Amino acid sequence: MIRAVPSNASDNVYCTLLAQSAVHGAMAGYTGYTSGLVNGRQTYIPYYRITEKQNNVVITDRMWARLLSSTNQPSFLGPKDISEEKKEMPETPLLDDGAVDIPPVTKEVTK
């Protein structure tokens, strides 16, 4: 994994877990896989499952901005790039700048 920030103790533990899992899988005779965490459980993931479909990254999305911020990477987008990207994106209630009606949460108290 390539990062733009120094590693910390959690990274050390995670990398050790991945390495041990990869060695256990190889010694068990598995090939064509990678090890990883899925829903908090250590798994062997076949390569064909990883490459069967391609995900697209929306570089004007808030999640992408959070990733850039957390890894101290610069954003090379200018105002022109952002305005052009917004024209191409379909409007959905969650991505729209307008308000979204969310019903209030109620909690019933029983005795």
Automatic annotation (TrEMBL):
The keyword Magnesium does not apply. Signal peptide: none annotated. This is ATP-dependent 6-phosphofructokinase 7-like. Residues 81-90 have a biased composition (Basic and acidic residues). The gene is LOC104733440. It comes from the Eukaryota. The keyword Lipoprotein does not apply. Keywords: Allosteric enzyme. InterPro entries: PFKA, PKF_sf. Residues 75-111 are annotated as: Disordered.
